[in-house]
Amino acid sequence: QVQLVESGGGLVQAGGSLRLSCAATGRTVSIARMGWFRQAPGKEREFVSAINWNTGWTYSADSVKGRFTMSRDNAKNLVFLQMNNVKPEDTAVYYCAADRRPLSITRLEYDYWGQGTQVTVSS
Questions:
Q1: At CA 93, angle to CA 19 and CA 101, rounded to 5?
Q2: What pLDDT, in 10s, does the model give residues 47-104?
Q3: Residue 112 and residue 55: Cα distance in Å, rounded?
Q4: Which residues contact 60 (CB under 8 A, 6 or more apart)?
Q5: Torsion sign across C-alpha atoms 111, 50, 79, 14
């Protein structure tokens, strides 16, 4: 089992920056991919970004490319989502996810999920 805890959410003005963190505990040695998803009120959860745990390769949704950057710290079992130039439409609960299967980082299936952290962008 892998447990995930997100942090770093909050209220930010449009154009500002925020960095989300996700701490993984448990059987972290089995992690192959990690991802960030978000869910806005009344909308379905959507993919934001993913990272290959071993290579560090990343893949992001078109809506955040050039603004959000995902990174990892393998030694500390942490992943980050650096959010720059945020927009009101980025308002959502952001979820961290992990998967043990060595699938492409473009795949959206994940075994483990965190509880989420709220990000609110004011205009």
A1: 80
A2: 999 999 999 999 999 999 999 999 999 999 999 999 999 999 999 999 999 999 988 9
A3: 20
A4: 48, 49, 50, 68, 70
A5: negative
